[in-house]
Amino acid sequence: MTDSTTGEPIRLTMAQAIVRWMAAQYIVIDGQELRLFGGGFGIFGHGNVTCLGEALYQHRDALPLYRGQNEQSMGFAAAAYAKYHLRQRMMFCTASAGPGTSNLLTSAALAHANRLPVLLLCGDTFVTRLPDPVLQQMENFYDPTLGVNDAFKPVTRYWDRIVHPAQIIQSLPNALATMLDPADCGPAFIGLPQDVQGWACDYPAAFFERRVHRVRRCAPDERELEDAAARLRSAARPLIIAGGGVQYSGAVDALTRFAEEHQIPVVETIAGRANLLATHPLNAGPIGVTGSDSANALAEQADVVLAVGTRLQDFTTGSWTAFAHDADFIAINAARHDAGKHRSLPVVADARLALEQLSEHLAGYRVSPHWSGIATELRKQWDTYVAVNVAHGNRPNSYAQAIGVVNELCDPQDRVVAAAGGLPAEVTANWRTLHVGTVDVEFGFSCMGYEIAGGWGARIAQSENQPDRDTIVFTGDGSYLLMNSDIYSSVLTGMKLIILVLDNGGFAVINKLQNNTGNESFNNLIADCPTVKAPFDVDFEAHARALGANAETVANAAELAEAFKRAQAADKTSVIVMKVDAYEGWTSQGHAWWEVGTPQISQSERVVQAHEDWESTRVRQRRGV
């Protein structure tokens, strides 16, 4: 190999070049240069062990490789890592050709829906086709170039298959540019044919030079700012919806100043939870289907809505019933597609720059104290409801009670992770934010199985700058049974988690939806599965112990509090199991309408009546584009 200082070409295999290039990428965060890739997650097979594995071994110190237990959970962990770092640092995932790679499809979709950067380096079939058909190859008789890896095209922001080692000179920078772009951010997929991985090429030395990146900040167009300011000045009852993009742009302080300067109430999306502290006087609570009465009441009255860093998902908008039909929308977003939704007046720009400059255009504008006073009073009423909802005593165990216990005992900077099922709604509604940016509720893809894997990825990220803080995972029994092996991963790597397993006997939140639409309980709760002949309770405690964790089962919220204190004091992952009621204890207030497909005809009168009741409220639905 030629010394790169000479400027002469460097001869490497394609796999070696990829790894060397990744190790040379850096990013500036708060004035400090850090490696862009914090490392990677990998499971080796015949499609990636001999070549990419050899290359990764040579860089094992610069790019630590975490051995996964399941490729899907590796992708979840990588997404959670990127979310913790606000999309400024990322991980790669490597999987073998065939089922190893196809297992990453779901996690690629999760990263895509949540706009999170993950680099997928996956094995592929031989370019020469000499040994075809090979082990695990999907043969398509009409198109021999088509394989499993092509399935990633709809769920990634960048896709390429490397058929010559020189192609990475263009492909890798393009993939990285996509992953660091605030507008196009998402996962990138690179297919690595098994033969091409080992082919050598003379690469230019400049390709491996240290490269320092910065995330682009797009300044707003002056005319769009002027239009937005004019629309806001006309408002008597403006409202700010703060999404996850506020945190990704580092705009929390700018949002807070903007709201305070103009006295505009702020509501948060699920992804935007923890933009403002619970105690901030202008924080009116979470909005939408899993929101709060306070936020949804304000949304119904607002005449101008300023949506910042949100894609306005149906759980945020109540399937577009949460707002008055004549409400005007202004959308600040780095992504043009999101900024123009539902007839919004777009401000295509970085959230921090846009809020700062929009505030200058609004100099002297301040909302009537009457409107902000309404918001404050509504939030007080919601806080009173939540305090009662999370309290425990002589009533069935619930998600809300467990959330209340943890909220009371955790450190303000501990990170909370939840996803799918009933817990995202319960955490969103009942969690009182103690510190900015400490809540990760994955609801972009609402993906079961993210919880423990995502907790592991978040903990790896957290250990880099907050090793004394805890990562706390809320999961139901359904998600636990779907994907739990990263309990073992967390123990192996010394990445301590506190995991609460809240067992309601199946998929209780979907059973709740089933019942709310007039249907009988069927195939969701274990007790209601007609093919189950001998129902029994899973011993989650014993299972978690078998994976190396501390574990205990508690009977109620009071015992949970004591167990949580023990978990805080422990030096490794702890799993706490508590049964919760499948029917009682759900948060009953704060819900907006949600569009659900219901049968127009049925043999059940209850189903027909539920359909008619559901459709009767559709008149509130805003017709958008």
Alpha plus pi helix count: 24
Oligomer: single chain
- Range of strand content: 15-25%
- Percent range for helical residues? 25-40%
CATH class identity of the largest domain: Alpha Beta
* End-to-end gap: 57 Å
As residue ranges, the low-confidence spans are: none
- Gross morphology: globular
Largest sheet: 6 strands, parallel
Total number of strands: 23
Characteristics:
6-stranded parallel β-sheet, 3 domains, alpha/beta, globular, Rossmann fold, 625 residues, single chain
Please tell me about this protein's structure.
The protein is of the alpha/beta class and 625 residues long. It has 3 domains: 210 residues, Rossmann fold, CATH 3.40.50; 160 residues, TPP-binding domain (Rossmann fold, 3-Layer(aba) Sandwich), CATH 3.40.50; 189 residues, 3-Layer(aba) Sandwich (Rossmann fold), CATH 3.40.50. The protein contains 24 helices and 23 strands. Strands 5-4-6-7-9-8 form a 6-stranded parallel β-sheet, sandwiched between helices. A 6-stranded parallel β-sheet has the order 14-13-12-15-16-17, sandwiched between helices. A 6-stranded parallel β-sheet has the order 19-18-20-21-23-22, sandwiched between helices. Strand 15, helix 12 and strand 16 form a beta-alpha-beta unit. Helix 8 crosses helix 14, helix 11 packs antiparallel against helix 15 and helix 16 packs across helix 17. The longest helix has 22 residues. It is globular, with a radius of gyration of 25 Å. The mean pLDDT is 96.
